[in-house]
Fold this protein.
Amino acid sequence: MVHTVASANRLGDLVDLFDSDPRVQLVHTCPETASVPAGVDEHLARRGFAVVGWGQAVNTVWDLIITANSSGGLHELLGPVVLVSHGIGYTKTITPGSPGARKPVYGLSAESLFSGGRLLPDVLVLSHEEQLERLAAAVAEAVERAVVAGDPRFDRMLASLDERDRYRAALGVGERDALVVVSSTWWQRSLFGSWPELLDQLLAELPVDRYRVAAVLHPHIWSAHGPAVVRSWLARCLRSGLLLVPPEEGWSAALIAADVVVGDHGAVTTYAAALGRPVLLGTFPEDDVAEGTAVHVVGGVAPRLDRSRPLRGQVRDVLARRLADPAPVADLVTSVPGKAAQLLREVCYELLGLPVPELPVPVPVLPDPEASGPRGGLAVRVHGSVGPDGVLELTRHPADALLGRSTPHPRLPETHLVAAADHPLPELRSGADVVFRRSADLRWLDTAADKHPFAAFAAAVTSPTECVVQVRDGPRLPCRTPSGVDPLVAASALYLLPDHPAAAPRRVRVDSADAVTVSVNG
């Protein structure tokens, strides 16, 4: 029973419990009263699952019903129910009915577990022993139906830690890059809801040759507003090189790839802390978080992001400190690390009345994250100066993110503009000092000067380390950069050192890294 895309993500981790078993047929349904059903049908269709309508679902006797939500018509279905959490345990509070009352916890309260006087789940799956204590205090009669079976998603993360380099490569993150993952849950008090400018500010302040920024937004944000609107809201960020992780999959792998996570009180931020990733909290509404949970611990140990100070220094500081010991958080995520799949399989097969398969249950490593964007996006502002050692020092920031920014950071000295020839903003494509296209077709260079009369150079980026620069009223120069260095760095080196001998190599230091050689053949 799939209420939302977020629930679909959680239930997807349970499909492999029935691996290679032709005795079991899985079908999916979405209740008519689901709170955020948008996107569920499309998600299930992409995964290739059989789907039955709600009318058929409520008129069928099922051998087993698995769901991650207790609301939305669960009481209408006929059959034994297994209820799992749809996040990192049970951590969110429900607004109390009367002033001063202790807030009940969603999933561990009478409001969540009863309907029409009936206790809904036949088995209530908990991830940690501490949830048993809270359940006993809130709904004592549900304790005998509770089973501590761990967290299948966290187990998959732990099984995938060795794939970190692969996930970083899939995201286009280089060896010397710091990957900053911004995670937001949903609603007004979330990070995205309360600080929507944060992504713009991070992209503006963090130099593109040292940092990559990825965003993980709660699936409810995508479903409630629509993917087109989300991408429209983030259009400037996407043009600045933001890696936008899709809502169905990829967020877990992005956490493994991350160097630092900026988040809130959502499950994704807490998973990051449990993996040992440094965490900065952009917001943390403590009233929304149940005490004694893993999320609550993160709120007590992770530093807050100060909106009044430059962001780059705060990110740099937390990268340097690191989260020394993830155990206080990880120990509250699951009481049985690595065992969730086997325990959940035993629960399900007992209710089905079938012998548990003798084959081992799979715990698949996570797939590669699908999010990509060119380094620096479609335009960069470049500051350059020659240091005392004769090396050209460059710092590059996304030009889109710098437009109309709400803070004075970064304070950039004189810069030149490098922009895509087809940039959607006329101000940037027509005002660029260097225009470029990422294409191996060099015929565009023949007419670039006429189409961009204010550009000194036009560059065709032909490979990850090569470009061809057409100097206005001058030669056409093939350039090469070392692996991991954007070839547009070579175009900026040519622009800033016009009197440098054309055939001589240029020594360039990009954002305080070690100096590299940029070769120019002309």
The chain has a mean pLDDT of 92.
